[in-house]
Amino acid sequence: MPKPLKKLSAKALQSLAADIRHFLIHSLSDTGGHLASNLGVVELTLALHTVFSTPRDQIIWDVGHQSYVHKILTGRKGRFDTLRMLDGLSGFPKTHESPHDAFGTGHSSTAISAALGLATARDRLGRENKVIAVVGDGSMTGGQSYEGLNNAGRAHTDLLVVLNDNQMSIGENVGAISRHLNRIRTTTAYLGAKQGAHRLLDNLPLVGASLSKAIESTRDAIKYLLIQGVLFEELGFRYFGPVDGHDITTLVEVLKRVKNIPGPVLLHVLTTKGKGYPCAESAPANFHGVEAFQVSTGKPTNGTKKQTYTNVFAKHLCKRAEENNKIVAITAAMPDGTGLSDFAERFPDRFFDVGIAEAHAVTFAAGLAMGGLRPVVAVYSSFLQRAYDQILHDVAIQNLPVTFAIDRAGIVGEDGETHQGLYDFAYLSHIPNMTVLAPADANELEAMLDFAWAHNGPVAIRYPRGEATIQNGERNPSLPPIVYGCSHTIAEGRGIALISVGTMMETALAVRDALKAEGYDPSLYNARFVKPVDAGLVNKLKAYDHVYVLQDAAAKGGYGEALRLPNVRDFAFPDKFIEAGTQRELFERYRLDGKSVAAFIINEVKSHENKKEIQQ
Fold first, then answer.
1. What is the pLDDT of residues 378-434, one digit of tens each?
2. Active-site hit among 71, 130, 358, 408
3. Most CB atoms closer than 10 Å: which of 64, 322, 370, 537?
4. Count of CB atoms within 10 A of residue 259's CB?
């Protein structure tokens, strides 16, 4: 636990920092995880736990993936071999995991708002603990951070915001705020100028109203000239920094000094993402979230990566962009993760990275579409949730031709509850004018993208993380064109109907094979459109005794419910937040793998047949 840190010398703390870095590099080389961001906050985390006392004092981590060192210092080092595994240690703060995790954080830009809430509750209930929000990895490019700052500056409650400025989100930070912070970084005389200005102004005598007014005017002029942290000061914060985030002696001293300053305080700390591991320092974006890797080289232990749906999307987007100069692409700080890096390189004037600002990205896309372009918003499913109002209000009501390329849909895996992309069917399908598609394989993804660019209205295409399959041969002899609102018949049978939604097709084919081995002849349909539902298919399904839907999504608000048929059994994820684990482990746990689905159907159909025989 962190208490012994307070007794350690600066030299001992530096030695501990080196040990923690060594542990992180070697532990994550086996398990994978968020490496670069955690290497960058080692000294900062040690300093925070030296000066403050958790869980009494509350530290909120934003983004939560930079909390590994915090977990090590609060008694969880022994569980790091289970990091991001099924029933293992979470890669994010979890209040149920430890009392030292003051607030659960998975997405970015939320910590200041949450910290203000905790601080206000503290004041109302008469407690005296400290509340600290550690904001990093580009969270300051997200609008909610400024909503929180604005409210906190007005509230005047005691609150410390530590800005962990490493110049990175997942990709490189972009935008005016990033440029502002970079100017502070590179102004060598900044600290001395600020301190000198405050000393000068504080010592000036206030004689008479007119002189007082003149001095105030001079104070503001000098402040704007010399104090580049004025952005935060104008929002009501006392600004301190920038401070070297790897100088633990200075960090501890500064934190002790700002600890008891009343009102909202912002401490600007400069860190290096990937600090202490050359591979990560030279390519921090590549080591943001890593799979198991070789420490000596930094290369993945699993060798060459297979083609993913992200790759398929990226290649086809570039291909069509060569032919159509109206196609533009937007990312919210994730050009690598969403596959847009090649597009950005080939079409720099048609690529827009808006920072961690999904709501802005969608409304910006709406403006581009209204102006005559064909914008593609490439975004992870769980992050698009943050722009629900903009999808409905700015895109759908105006029926604008915005294409949403929704990556990491369905079960994502190791990042757990905050990152599973299970809810997009539900939050998109009930919006008027919205068309929602799910490709069965790589070829269908390409065809659906072409459909989207020809369609006069908003289209969402959702595809999963992982390897892109291709259905071919006897199982899919041809790929019929994508026709609005129409499903694709893979095989016609009798008695039993299987409906595959998106990339559940591989599972559906395995289930069909298992049923055929038992003497049944099931039909198999590829839904293609989650919205609108194929009315012709619905009519067909009324004639079947058994209808089974297979979808990598939440059952509530999913495709099965949209069919509105009494004879439907929906194989989907239950009404709960799904924990971390590999995709395979989670499908097996929730009995959505091919073997489990086939066993259930065979048992149910045979039971139904036995009942009919008894009744006869």
1. 999 999 999 999 999 999 999 999 999 999 999 998 888 999 999 999 999 999 999
2. 358
3. 64
4. 15
* 446 flagged as catalytic: no
- Quickly tell me which residue has 């920092």 as its tokens: 17
Rounded to whole angstroms, how far apart are CA atoms 236 and 154?
6
Q: Say what the pTM is.
A: 0.86
Give yes or no: 386 in active site: yes
Which of 275, 350, 386, 512 is the catalytic position?
386
CA distances, 184 to each of 218, 231, 240, 255 (Å) = 22, 11, 11, 20
Residue 422 DSSP class: -
3-class SS letters over 446-505: HHHHHHHHHCCCCEEEEEECCECCCCCHHHCCCCCCCCCCCCEEEECCCCEEEEECHHHH
- Catalytic site residue from 21, 94, 223, 273: 273
273 is catalytic: yes
CA distance 354 to 8: 43
Token digits of residue 226: 């010399």
For residue 465, give the nearest of 335, 344, 307, 332 by alpha carbon.
307
**Which secondary-structure segment (H or E) carries 131?**
strand 131-136
SS3 for 522?
coil
For residue 604, pLDDT over 90 is answered with yes
Q: CA 386, 391, 393: angle at the middle one, nearest 5?
A: 115
pLDDT tens for 449-465 read 999 999 999 999 999 99
E strand or H helix that includes residue 377: strand 374-380
Residues present in the chain in total: 616
- Edge-to-edge strand ranges of the sheet holding 238-244: 58-62, 131-136, 159-165, 264-270, 238-244
